[in-house]
Amino acid sequence: MSAGLLPPRPPGVLGALAVLLGKELLRLRRNPAALMAVGLLVLMSVLVSLETRGDPARQRAAGLPCWIVHAPGDPFAAYLQRHAGPRLPVAFLAREQPQASAYPRGLPCAAEIGPVQDRQAQGLKPLRRIVFRHGEDRARSEQLARWVLSGLAAQALDAKIEQGLQPFPAGHVLAPPGGLARLDLGSGQTRALVGTMLLYSAQFFVACALFISFAAHERERGIAQALALSPVGPGLALLAKFIFHLGLAAAACALMLAVLAPRLLGSGLLWGLLLLMGLGLSAVATLVVSFSRSQTAASLLGFCYLMTVGAVFALSGSFPAFQGLRLLMFEHHALQGLGALLGPRGPETASRLLDSLLGLGLTVPPLLLAATLAWRRRGWRQG
């Protein structure tokens, strides 16, 4: 048999993957609305970043003095007031109960100086109780603590110092004046919440909603069945879809992180969390496509899934059953880990990250296994 009559050699695995990824890229180029939606999410992150940098409330907070809240007539507070230096602006306020003070929003730091009531009731030597409060600027809080402690040492006074810097109590922070409540983007926790929601939105749109749209369309038209019956097979076709959508989701998240938190672009923990969350969302999309007969039904099921996740999260705060159900959802662990990485670092950050990674490791693999089995049995079949 001549060389011209020999059948062509089937492409290898890498060659087949390249062809399949090219097919997915071509489908994306024919759907500019999908790229526009991703661009809109990136634009939202840019607007959030600009709002954070130009937040007038945060700029005003940078010029606020730290508060020294003390009992009326306290001689140690009077000593501190006489020796207050210009480098650390402080304001002195007399309160009957310093530990129950209300603070304005955005206050950088405070020190509460009050007597220990039990010792006074027993007729013992007066002893002061000092609590240091911190806001967003922990450096100023530490400077205030060093100044107060040096005053104690200079006066040779006895005091009961609360361990560590403590945040302002939520119940004692005054609400902003008038109007409807608004997100304070000057707060680190609020910025972390907004950034987490933007990253999750990008992951859900690309790794789940877009996955459902493309895969359901191919199944309805018989393209998925033709690929499964070819030398490519259903497994390799599904792997190409996972690689394409996870790569596109990673690119969108990288653009957002470059705007919201550039310091996390090189964080392996963050990319591990995003990868596990993307795998979970792609597995959900695979299950939705496998058990839907048309593209319309698949898109509706995907929307219902998103609404179900939101309902479980909303009801978990009031009903223990929904709280247990939330622990079985990989979204809860992914959002918790992203919030810990994007938010201000604290003593609980490491434990939250460990819990998130453990939860994702327990919930995502079974979901991937179920999605793979469902795709191999019926996901690629037409009708």
Task: Describe the model.
Keywords: Membrane, Transmembrane, Transmembrane helix. The longest helix has 34 residues. Strands 1, 2, 3, 4, 5 and 6 form a 6-stranded mixed sheet that branches. The two termini are 42 Å apart. The protein folds into 2 domains: 234 residues, no CATH class; 105 residues, no CATH class. It is elongated and about 90 Å long. Strand 1, helix 4 and strand 2 form a beta-alpha-beta unit. With 383 residues, the protein is an alpha/beta fold. The chain is built from 14 helices and 6 strands.
Radius of gyration: 29 Å
Give the number of helices.
Answer: 14
List the secondary-structure elements in sequence, H or E. Answer: HHHEHEEHEHEEHHHHHHHH
Number of strand segments? 6
What average pLDDT do the residues reach?
Answer: 80
The fraction of residues in strands falls at: 5-15%
From the helix content, strand content and strand pairing, which structural class follows? alpha/beta
